[in-house]
Amino acid sequence: MDSETLHLNIDYVGSSGILLSTEQKTSLQNSLLILKHQNKFKKVIFWGKITGYSKDYFIAQGVGNDEMKDKKTFYSLDCNKWALLPIATDELKILCSRIKGRFAGDPSYEYEHVEIRKVPGENGEENEEETTIAIREEERLAVTIETIDRDVKIVPRGAYIKLPTGEIQSNPSFEGLSTSNAAKLTSYFHFDKSASLNKKNIIQKATFDKSLDFLGDISEDIPKGSWSVQFERGDAVATIRSLLWIGSIFYHVPDSRHYGQVYVGNGEMNLDLPFML
Predict the structure, then answer these.
(1) Strand 259-265 with 43-50, pairing
(2) What is the end-to-end Cα distance of the chain in Å, rounded?
(3) Helix, strand and coil in the chain, % to nearest 5
(4) Among 120, 139, 238, 258, which lies 20 to 30 A Cα-Cα from 155?
């Protein structure tokens, strides 16, 4: 959710148990404004919080002109001082996929992973060699955030447009979804460059608007039933909860430009989901 209206928008997800103290709201409001001006971002988004044993990580993302590609992620332990996270490379993703359990809450904490490799030996025999690889927690944090964004970061249909240059920007003409459309999973798109339209048939693609329907919607996500749509305050607010990444909450006020998303959780995927459905 946009950091400039954080103190107002956070109340939309309060019924889901996502709350910030007055001190945290004030600190985030001020520090994120400074972060925006220092780095000359177009806007700064309060991404959420990942809990750890000793401390929690508050996460923010700064975006430029292309809101999908031009993005940097920061973390803070006190809502005041922000540090840039490393880039989640493919190699890091493979290494971090082998780490299980909650975060320690210390960015300098190192996880040790032992790999056993076979190396050529004498007389054509193969010998086993152990290699210990150290992975810092801030590297794991970067991979986890990118994975959550890839899996469950969503936007309403029409909220973003794709320009002829290929840039993706906010749609100034977006006036919100109707109440009936806000209840449909087909009205929400994955906001990730890997989201694909390949699951749609030719007839469905023929009705698409290329400037709006350039991402895949969440209705085809596997497993089926991994999203929960509810209305709160009557029909005033639509909330969409991810059951794959518990703690990810998206909200939208129908017939308005108000929408946003936040994640507050332990940073672990719900691997039991297929057995819960």
Answers:
(1) parallel
(2) 29
(3) 30, 30, 40
(4) 139
223 upstream amide cis, omega within 30 of 0? yes
* Residues found in the chain: 277
SS (H, E, C) 173-218: CCCCCCHHHHCCHHHEEECCCCCCCCCCCHHHHHCCCCCCCCCCEH
Cα 60 from chain centre: 11
- Answer for the pair 259, 251: CB distance below 8 angstroms, yes or no: yes
**What Å distances lie between residue 228 and 185, 236, 252, CA to CA?**
9, 17, 14
Q: Closest Cα to residue 208, out of 199, 22, 235?
A: 199
Q: Which two tokens stand for residue 92?
A: 């890091």
Q: What is the pTM of this model?
A: 0.87
d(CA 32, CA 17) in angstroms, rounded, equals 23
Q: From residue 98, how far is each of 85, 86, 140, 256 by CA, in Å?
A: 20, 19, 10, 43
Single-letter amino acid code for the residue at 131? T
Residue 166 main-chain phi, psi, to 5 deg: 100, -10
Helix (H) or strand (E) holding 87: none
3-state SS assignment for residue 138:
helix
Answer for the pair 252, 182: CB distance below 8 angstroms, yes or no.
yes
pLDDT tens sequence for the chain (277 residues)? 888 888 888 888 887 778 888 898 899 999 999 999 999 999 999 999 999 999 999 999 999 888 888 889 999 999 999 999 999 888 888 888 888 889 999 998 988 877 777 777 666 677 777 778 888 999 999 999 999 999 999 999 888 888 888 788 888 888 999 999 999 998 999 988 665 555 555 445 445 556 666 788 888 888 888 999 999 888 889 999 999 999 999 999 999 999 999 999 999 999 888 888 7
Report d(CA 22, CA 260) in Å as an integer.
20
Q: What Rg value do the Cα atoms of the chain yield, rounded?
A: 21
